[in-house]
Specification:
By secondary structure, this protein is mostly beta strands. The chain is built from 1 helix and 16 strands. The strands form 4 sheets. A 5-stranded antiparallel sheet has the order 9-8-7-10-11. The protein has a 5-stranded antiparallel sheet with strand order 14-13-12-15-16, with no helix packed on it. Its main location: cytoplasm.
Length: about 190
């Protein structure tokens, strides 16, 4: 059990038979009446976001999530197959369960698979990944690092804005949390 006073961004709770993650929270102490906690919760399974208010100090069941580092081995139809490299046990996740993470997911990549009650819920990618540029406008002599940006499509199909001097075939580091270019990768 966790008190609503202990909510922090990222805290997970069980509510109505589902797992919810606290996205935002605000402790409110009005002049009259008792204090309360206004939250914005995101359903881990479906991605729905709701606003909910709890009394200050209200006790709620905390969802204990388990993380396992698995390797994405291959796709089978619409399912992504992950393998625990220690036990060689396979776990399958649907495209819906993976969500936006799939735009940076490539075969051979190690990720954290988050489970609740032995059911896989979502995939947590590393904060940054190295991917190759597959499609972009060609770089032109004179384009500088301080100039503008252009769209580039990466090997996984993700699109990010990159500096003008980059060209097809170069490997770049991308922040998976906010889809931004971090720099060239020397390989």
């Amino acid at each position: 059990m966790i008190s609503s006073n202990d909510f922090r961004t990222g805290t997970t709770i069980e509510l109505d038979g589902a797992v919810w993650r606290v996205v935002e929270f605000l402790h409110v102490k009005p002049g009259k009446g008792s204090a309360f906690v206004r939250t914005k919760l995101k359903a881990v399974q479906s991605g729905n976001v709701v606003e909910k208010t709890f009394r200050a100090g209200e006790m709620l069941p905390q969802a204990i999530l388990e993380k396992a580092t698995l390797q994405h081995t291959y796709m089978e139809g619409e399912d992504y197959v992950f393998m625990d490299m220690g036990t060689y046990e396979e776990t399958r996740l649907s495209a819906k369960q993976i969500g936006e993470s799939r735009k940076y997911l490539k075969e051979g990549m190690e990720v954290n698979v988050v489970s609740w009650n032995d059911k896989p819920l979502e995939v947590e990618l590393p904060n940054s990944v190295v991917l190759e540029i597959k499609e972009t406008d060609p770089g032109v002599k004179g384009d500088t690092a301080t100039g503008g940006t252009k769209p580039a499509i990466l090997e996984t199909g993700a699109q990010v804005m990159v500096p003008l001097f980059l060209s097809i075939g170069e490997k770049i580091k991308v922040d998976t949390r906010n889809d931004t270019y971090l720099g060239r990768e020397n390989s």
